[in-house]
Design brief:
Helices cover 48% and strands 8% of the residues. It folds into two domains: 102 residues, no CATH class; 132 residues. It is mainly alpha-helical.
Length: 251
């Protein structure tokens, strides 16, 4: 809501003392303006349009009006250093398109999927390892399994196989962040069920949840991928992935 962006009130103090700086509860945007700090606005396109548009005066005039207060306290001016970094997922569904007026107040930078396979594997492995440690898992992810995971995500995301041929792509958001989530789920599953890192069977089980949460057709596409694309590939983990394809039957 707009209150969560600008400010709200401590109603106990508001009733006993009336509007004052003591009863005012600044929201992150107001705090960022008062302290001259960067404000990160996560998933801005998930906000209703009227809430998005409440940012217009903040970004243009760099001031918040607090009509309940009197005197100089009724206007909060942004200090040097204040700015807003907003994020949005362009592939996500059910979002509210930003108005043209709000778009003019931002500089846009599109972050594309990581083009280099080795870089993406290293990133997924590092982030998954950090998450696993926080979950009490001491076993590091298997590098070969991470390579299979990231390669699978890249192919299902782009609709292009390793040999350059076209294939079915999933409608689900097969992002690097989603790959990290699957790697974490694999590690937790493998560690707490068997006391070892996640393997290809865990990967198939976790991929089923990723593919099925948006569209039932994605589960069929994933099954075709495991049956047709993975079958002829070399490597122990690719063979194990193909051998575990039956785990999708219950999906």
């Amino acid at each position: 809501t707009e209150d969560q962006i600008k400010y709200s009130w401590n109603y106990a103090l508001l009733v006993s003392e009336g509007p004052s700086t003591r009863s005012l509860v600044p929201a992150p945007m107001l705090r960022g303006m008062q302290e001259g700090r960067l404000v990160r606005f996560e998933e801005i396109t998930r906000c209703p349009l009227e809430v998005q548009d409440s940012l217009l005066s903040l970004l243009s005039e760099r001031v918040v009006s607090i009509p309940e207060l009197e005197g100089p306290e009724a206007m909060a001016f942004a200090r040097q250093g204040f700015n807003v970094i907003a994020t949005a997922n362009t592939r996500d569904r059910g979002v509210n398109e930003m108005s043209a007026a709000l778009k003019r107040r931002f500089n846009f930078e599109t972050v594309f999927p990581i083009p280099d396979l080795d870089t993406e594997i290293a990133l997924v492995e590092a982030e998954a390892t950090a998450l696993l440690r926080r979950s009490g898992v001491t076993a590091a992810p298997d590098r070969d399994v991470m390579e299979v995971l990231v390669t699978t995500f890249r192919e299902l995301r782009s609709g292009v196989g390793q040999d350059g041929s076209a294939m079915d792509r999933l409608s689900s958001v097969m992002s690097t962040a989603e790959a990290v989530s699957v790697a974490h789920a694999m590690g937790v599953r493998g560690w707490f069920l068997r006391g070892e890192p996640g393997d290809a069977a865990d990967l198939v089980t976790c991929l089923a949840g990723t593919a099925a949460k948006d569209s039932p057709e994605d589960l069929a596409r994933l099954r075709r991928y495991l049956e047709q694309r993975v079958s002829g590939r070399r490597g122990a983990q690719w063979k194990a992935l193909h051998a575990s394809r039956h785990l999708l039957a219950g999906g």
